[in-house]
Amino acid sequence: MRIPLKTLINVGLLLLVIALLLTINFMASSYIQRVIISLGINIILVVSLNLSNGFTGVFSLGHVGFMAIGAYTAAILTLPLSLKAVNLPDLPTWLAGVEMSFLPATLIGGVLAALIALLIGLSLMRLSGNYVAVATMGFLVIVYAVLVNWDSMTRGARTFSGVPPYTTFWWVWGWAALTVYVVWRLARSSYGRKMMAIRDNEIAAQALGINVMRTRLLAFCVSAFFTAVAGALWAHFITAFSPKEFYFTQTFSIITMLVVGGMGSVSGSVLGTAAITVLSELLRNAERGINLGFIQIPPVYGASQILMAIIFILVIIYWPKGLLGGREIDFSRLFIRPQRQKKSEE
Amino acid sequence: MTGFTNLIQQLINAFSIGSLYALMAIGLAMVFGILRLINFAHGDLIMVGSYTALLVQVAGMPFWVAALAGITASALAGLIMERVAYRPIRGAPEVSMLLTSFAVTIFLENTAILIFSPISRAFPAPSILTAALKYGTLRISSLDLIAIGVAIILLILLTLFVTRTKVGISMRAASEDLLAARLMGINVNKVIASAFLIGSMLAGVVGMLWSARVGKVDPLMGFYPVLKAFVATVIGGMGNLPGAVLGAYVLGFLEILLQGLLPATLTPFRDAFVFLALIILLLFRPNGILGPTAREKI
Amino acid sequence: MLTLKDVYVFYGHVQALKGISLEVQEGELVALLGANGAGKSTTLMTISGILRPRSGSIIYKEHDLTKTSPEDIVQLGIIQCPEGRRVFGGLTVLENLWMGAAARKDKAAIQKDLEWVFSLFPILRQRARQTAGTLSGGEQQMLAIGRALMARPQLLMLDEPSLGLAPLIVESIFNVIRELHSQGVTILLVEQNARKALQVADRAYVLETGQIKLSDNADKLRTNPEVQRLYLGGPSS
């Protein structure tokens, strides 16, 4: 079986990057390790959002709601009994005695999110473009309101703390690899072609007999599942959080990463996420003020958000398809000259 | 008797809130009609105007000067927004435009936080706005009456504008068919700028009334108003000016209704219920109440 | 009056016009014929400045249209009545007509032109206050032409005025076109209905997949066997 050179180069480089990642992780400071974990979680978030937004054209602005569902569900389930008694005294009795390990809790969070996605999806999938965006925003507002007010389950607006720190490099990157693999395969399958057909021209797709509703719904639910998993991972990483972590600021971060990487490109999402995660870390450090010896730049809190917004606007104006132009990355291009194509302008 | 007065009070409340939403929603609908852009940053125009008015008052000027300054600031901010962020992406897919407006919101809100700190500040308003009028057991806030009055006047003026002036009719034409409008030689840039100008001025007016009503300003104050205004346009059928107004009043009434009907434990969920109602509405009327019921013609 | 030379227009990578050249003299009625997708509408959109050619020149009375904005092109008097009519459905007939004159400032003359349009299309006077969306296809076409006339065109470009209309209505539309021609309006007529177009035109071009394949006087083209076979449904129509 002859493997094309292009594939060899791409796979080879991918393995190289993985090896690099592992090395950095185990040799670097704990700060860098934390950044690498954040990166992994962000990748799951962005790639799963891409499945919905980029590939099916269902533009969800409320996905962070699923993240919250995953986070809170898993956290409530894994919270040690002793802490439950203290922090969540009004928990219903069937929950108060439950304490699960990480994987089942995460899976339950994911499945719950997927079910909710199914429910709201049934009404949302018939809507187009702008209306979907609004409806999903509405979903996020609803989730937020529920979280803030359902005191007995979530401690309302107060910090939910004491979550056991189960998240490790392997959990995060294991899930990340799975997410990327699933989305990649979906995109490449006939299923994926259907999705993109719907995205590009819904009416034509219907005319071709593609069941728009079912295809979109499936993508939406799968996407919700992985987003919730990311939420669970995040909850057990940061160990303390409150509803406001799952609102529009977070939404905007994820969307920035999505747009920079390019919707409709899985590898683009990964790269975009990496770029923005690193950049925002740098900016956040800079916010505390920079001491260059002879120059001292004073702390400017919030500046990183402003810069992100500006970057976002610039990218949308100048690279609307993302840095990779909506295509998948192809390292081999660095090494092999593409064949000259004479067909286009005759 | 008190049941009746309560009803009157709630009605006035609903109309008043509906009026504010209506003035906001029109701005959104005008821009959406022509550009198909949902301008989330429209909410921040309220914030810009309010802070400007605050600063002007702190500098010692009387309220009416501050209000004018605030409205002007909102108008300018809207024009700048259009020129810098939205014009370069004209013709881009709908989602790009939506996202850009998000980015503009984040930019404005965080800049405000940077300059003014996230803590809210008191907004001084003249007694004419804060007074409460009493008729027997009936208590009406003069702000409510003023809000309703201002809204009615502005709505009438706006109707005259879009039906009698060339720019107004051009705006409606551009909403219907932008390409055909260009072929008529209509200067699309001017029409769009006018839409932004008017919408932003209206947002400025809302800012003054809203800040007086709530008594304070903070950098994120525009967030909920724009969300509500947005729901209003969706209810009424997007891009449709009368629809936006109708949707706004429906929303105002819905909110007050829910406030009254929901058991005390559920009132904090009021906003969630409003959105739930919206989602249900979209289930049956995907294009809003006044939007086209016909499916897209091929 | 209007000269296109070697105009190439692309939609992204797709080539729509492959080096076309044509000209329209003052007072002429020139027809641009061709099947669907041949590039006729593209040609008009390029002249109107909505699309820009990748290369080639478009000169109108010494003005280089490729460097002129669509609004200014309208000011020069080049008015297009687009394909599919595209009337402003939510506006009344009267408002639609006023929009035609949107770029003009001479109020009195606009009033006179309104009268002129009503005299050409009496049905529009009857329906003046009705919303354009409620008009029939034929009435909308008349409105579209009337709207274009309100701009006082020096060069009137009509894109498929007969599209989707019943034969009787087509007849009356073409009568109006003939009337305008006799009143001295220069017209560039794009049509799929070659028979009717050649009946009213002075000269005609035949466009096929982005290239001008034939160009001649209308009567010569009517008897041209190729044209007869491809566009006129057989000999001796």
Our measurement of the CA-to-CA distance between the termini of chain A, rounded to an integer number of angstroms, reads: 37 Å
Order of neighbouring strands in the sheet with most strands of chain A? 1-2
Mean pLDDT of chain B: 86
What is the general shape of chain B? globular
Element string of chain A (H = helix, E = strand): HHHHHHHHHHHHHHEEH
What is the tally of beta strands of chain B?
4
Q: Mind telling me the C-alpha Rg of chain A?
A: 21 Å
Which structural class is indicated by helix and strand composition of chain B? mainly alpha
Strand content of chain B: under 5%
Structural category of chain A: mainly alpha
Low-pLDDT stretches of chain A are: 339-346
Q: Which oligomeric state applies? A: heterotrimer
Biggest beta sheet summary of chain B: 2 strands, antiparallel
Name the beta content range of chain A.
under 5%
Low-confidence stretches of chain B: 294-298
Q: Strand-and-helix sequence of chain B, N→C?
A: HHHHEHEEHHHHEHHH
Radius of gyration based on Cα positions of chain B: 19 Å
- Which strand order spans the largest sheet of chain B, edge to edge or round the barrel? 1-4
Secondary structure layout:
The complex is a heterotrimer of chains A (346), B (298) and C (237).
Chain A: H1 5-27, H2 30-56, H3 63-78, H4 81-87, H5 93-96, H6 102-124, H7 129-149, H8 151-154, H9 169-188, H10 190-200, H11 202-207, H12 212-238, H13 248-261, H14 266-287, E1 290-291, E2 296-297, H15 303-318
Antiparallel strand pairs in A: 1-2
Helix pairs in contact in A: 2-9, 2-12, 2-13, 2-14, 3-6, 3-7, 3-12, 6-12, 9-10, 9-12, 10-12, 13-14, 13-15, 14-15
Chain B: H1 2-35, H2 42-58, H3 63-86, H4 94-116, E1 121-122, H5 127-130, E2 132-135, E3 138-141, H6 142-164, H7 166-176, H8 178-183, H9 188-214, E4 216-217, H10 223-236, H11 241-261, H12 270-284
Antiparallel strand pairs in B: 1-4, 2-3
Helix pairs in contact in B: 1-6, 1-7, 1-9, 1-10, 1-11, 2-3, 2-4, 2-9, 3-9, 6-7, 7-9, 10-11, 11-12
Chain C: E1 2-11, E2 14-24, E3 29-33, H1 40-47, E4 55-60, E5 63-64, H2 70-75, E6 78-81, H3 93-100, H4 107-120, H5 122-126, H6 137-149, E7 155-159, H7 167-182, E8 186-191, H8 194-200, E9 203-208, E10 211-217, H9 218-223, H10 225-231
Parallel strand pairs in C: 3-8, 3-9, 6-7, 7-8
Antiparallel strand pairs in C: 1-2, 1-4, 4-5, 9-10
Helix pairs in contact in C: 3-6
